[in-house]
Design a protein that fits this description.
By secondary structure, this protein is an alpha/beta fold. It folds into 2 domains: 343 residues, TIM Barrel (Alpha-Beta Barrel); 55 residues, no CATH class. 46% of the residues lie in helices and 10% in strands. It has 16 helices and 12 strands. The strands form 3 sheets. It has an 8-stranded parallel β-barrel with strand order 3-4-5-6-8-10-11-12, surrounded by 5 helices. A two-stranded antiparallel sheet has the order 1-2. Helix 11 links the parallel strand 11 and strand 12.
Length: 435
């Protein structure tokens, strides 16, 4: 045991009337919602990078946190692992996520770096024998080191591609060994800064080959989790190849991966793509590639990915509506890809962020479930498309009518369709009854 969280008691559910700032007021993990435990709906996870590796810097200022595990030695990494599992136990949280560079220092060679990562993974495995926290997903950091300044899979140098592949192999195998439910391909620099030096087609082919290698190796080692791509627009490259869900699906479809790979969707990334989180979830669900989500929010007045903890029940309710209508997240979950503010220096702040975020998710889950169980909203939307359920509407969708057929019907029946109200204000008011 360390003394970093000295004096802080485990967080418990105390109900909405509690004034204890380190108690769950709405997140009751065992409460049944639509026939399933609340925890099993949400499947929350702590992000190792923001919670333990982030030093408090932003684009205009450096480190503000002074953590005893900050450093480049394996001793620092082991201390970090100790503190991490202490936080997991205090929060009573079922999952965590990590990049390889979050958990262990980079060595002089990839072999040394991989040994460092595996050594910490072995510590995780021992700690998981006495902790209920498990691994939601792992990933490799293919963006921080200067070798990846021009991308990893999309790099113009094939040796960088090979190095990245070897790095992913190690983390994929560790993720499997730790019982992870997913492996995320996060293309932090898979894009371009200028077309003057870029062959887009070449780079897309390279990225496809890289993903194919990952899929095949996952099958070879018996990894039965999901392979996920996380859409990420604009930041840091001018143009990212995995801009949004639709762009990712187009890529997957082109190369035949649409049944092999799904999406890990982040709130902040949806915003940077000029979408809502709800939109990205709805698109992914409609395409069959909704895999997992990252829970956070952006500062609407800042131009970068601020990764704040979620705190809007109305917005998150609409997200949960899409997830519940999709049948849930399956092997996915809600990873808190969020960090406390750079002025939040105290150990307790790390708990406050997660406690508040979990309470928001719990309230949103229950609101979305009530909305679905009430049925009024779904009936209103279904009524708008009712014409497509008629025999004629179905015949059109099934390809049983030609343009000649449709034109003849307009003439024969003297069709003159009139517009109907979309009822947006009514539907907004209806949603607000539940949030």
């Amino acid at each position: 045991m360390t003394d970093f969280f000295k004096g802080i008691s485990p967080v418990k559910f105390e109900g909405p009337q509690s004034a204890n700032p380190l108690a769950y007021r709405f997140y009751n993990k065992d409460e049944m919602v639509m026939g399933k435990r609340m925890e099993d709906h949400i499947r929350p996870a702590v992000a190792y990078w923001h919670t333990f590796a982030w030093e408090g810097g932003d684009p205009f200022g450096g480190r503000t946190f002074d953590r005893p595990w900050f450093g480049d030695s394996m001793d620092h990494a082991r201390l970090k692992a100790d503190v991490a599992f202490e936080l997991f136990d205090l929060l009573d949280i079922p999952f965590f996520c990590f990049h390889d560079r979050d958990i262990a220092p980079e060595g002089a060679s990839l072999a040394e770096s991989n040994r460092n990562v595996r050594a910490i993974a072995e510590i995780f495995a021992r700690k998981m024998e006495t902790s209920r926290t498990r691994l939601l997903w792992g990933t490799a950091n293919l963006f921080s080191n200067r070798r990846y300044m021009s991308g990893a899979a999309t790099n113009p140098d094939p040796d960088v591609f090979v190095y990245a592949a070897a790095q992913v192999k190690n983390v994929l195998e560790i993720t499997k060994d730790l019982g992870g439910s997913n492996y995320v391909l996060w293309g932090g620099r898979e894009g371009y800064e200028t077309l003057l030096n870029t062959k887009i087609g070449q780079e897309m082919d390279q990225m496809a080959r890289f993903i194919d290698l990952v899929i095949n190796h996952a099958k070879k080692i018996g990894f039965d989790g999901q392979i996920l791509i996380e859409p990420k627009p604009q930041e840091p490259s001018k143009h990212q190849y995995d801009f949004d869900v639709s762009t990712v699906y187009g890529f997957l479809k082109k190369y035949g991966f649409e049944n092999e790979v799904k999406c890990n969707i982040e709130v902040g990334h949806a915003f940077l793509a000029n979408h809502s989180f709800e939109h990205e979830l709805a698109v992914a669900a409609s395409l069959g590639i909704l895999g997992s989500v990252d829970a956070n929010r952006n500062d609407l007045q800042s131009g970068w990915d601020t990764d704040q903890f979620p705190n809007s029940v109305p917005e998150t309710t609409l997200a949960f509506y899409q997830i519940l209508k999709n049948g849930g997240l399956g092997k996915g979950g809600f990873n808190f890809d969020a960090k406390v503010r750079r002025q939040s220096l105290d150990p307790a702040d790390l708990l406050h962020g997660h406690v508040g975020g979990l309470d928001v998710l719990a309230r949103s889950l229950k609101a979305a479930a009530a909305l679905i169980e009430d049925g009024t909203y779904d009936k209103a939307v279904d009524a708008r498309y009712a014409g497509w359920q008629t025999p004629e509407g179905q015949a059109i969708l099934k390809g049983e009518r030609s343009l000649d057929d449709l034109a003849a019907r307009v003439e024969k029946e003297n069709l003159n369709p009139q517009p109907h109200s979309g009822q947006q204000e009514y539907l907004e008011n209806l949603i607000n009854r539940f949030v």
